[in-house]
Amino acid sequence: MALIECRGLTREYKKGDNIIRPLDGLDLDVERGEFVALMGPSGSGKTTLLNLVAGIDSPTRGELTVDGVALGSLSRNKLAAWRAQHVGYVFQLYNLVPVLTAYENVELPLLLHALSRRERHGRVMTALQRVGIADRHDHYPRQLSGGQEQRVAIARAVVTDPTILVGDEPTGDLDASAAEAVMALLGELHDDLGKTIIMVTHDPKTAACAERTLHLEKGRLVREAGAMEGAAV
Ligand SMILES: Nc1ncnc2c1ncn2[C@@H]1O[C@H](COP(=O)(O)OP(=O)(O)O)[C@@H](O)[C@H]1O
Ligand SMILES: [Mg+2]
């Protein structure tokens, strides 16, 4: 059984008299430990798919099973608890809390877990070290570069040791060298820790860092490419 299984996955919104269908009967399997890139034009449903897989949103129709759990059948509270345990989310604009230090931002998701202060400290420092930013632990987001902010955001996403890491254009706002460093970091999380990663990107070079590239169009999967094929785009 694949880690993530989507069958006829559909998400609809009502807009006045119209129905918008950002995801339209999508079928997809993602294996445990895979690193998948998600590409497609703006409005093709990429963020919608990530949000469903991450348990931030619920499908209108179809099946979505992650690690054997049918997410559509969970109550709001159960889904929130599931998400806190299983998902790390990285955003294009980092979404760090501006009034908290790097350390406090990374600590935040751990407050939802039953851990002692000492255990939290150990986990936060390990995560900050992993992303190479432990020496800036007491810096506020405004005192960090974009690349450093994204590293802190990645530390925050992995500090709970989630099953899945999702990224919505995590390098979209970074210059080329910072983007490369962030991709190297995601590659390490995949290679060393065996994290399953799904990452949206517009950049074929960034997508080539993944093992497989999925292309979405109008809420459906249109074609797939392996890493070699992706690199040639
Ligand atoms: N909460 C929402 N309410 C209404 N429409 C939405 C909502 N979320 C997304 N959409 C619509 O769904 C479509 C696909 O959105 P999205 O998944 O964000 O695309 P992408 O990330 O590929 O650019 C867009 O047309 C968007 O306006
Ligand atoms: Mg999007």
Helices and strands in order, then pairings?
Layout: E1 4-15, E2 18-30, E3 35-39, H1 46-53, E4 61-66, E5 69-70, H2 76-86, E6 87-90, H3 102-107, H4 117-130, H5 146-158, E7 164-168, H6 176-193, E8 196-200, H7 204-207, E9 212-217, E10 220-226, H8 227-231
Parallel strand pairs: 3-8, 3-9, 6-7, 7-8
Antiparallel strand pairs: 1-2, 1-4, 4-5, 9-10
Bound molecules: adenosine-5'-diphosphate (ADP) and magnesium ion.
Task: Describe the protein.
Helix content is 34%, strand content 28%. Helix 4 (117-130) crosses helix 5. Strands 6-7-8-3-9-10 form a six-stranded mixed β-sheet. It has a four-stranded antiparallel β-sheet with strand order 2-1-4-5, with helices on one face. It is of the alpha/beta class. The mean pLDDT is 94. Strand 9 and strand 10 form a beta hairpin. The chain is globular, with a radius of gyration of 18 Å. The structure holds adenosine-5'-diphosphate (ADP) and magnesium ion (MG).
Please report the number of helical segments.
Answer: 8
Which percent range fits the helix content? 25-40%
Identify the strand order in the major beta sheet.
6-7-8-3-9-10
Q: What is the domain total for the residues?
A: 1
CATH topology: Rossmann fold
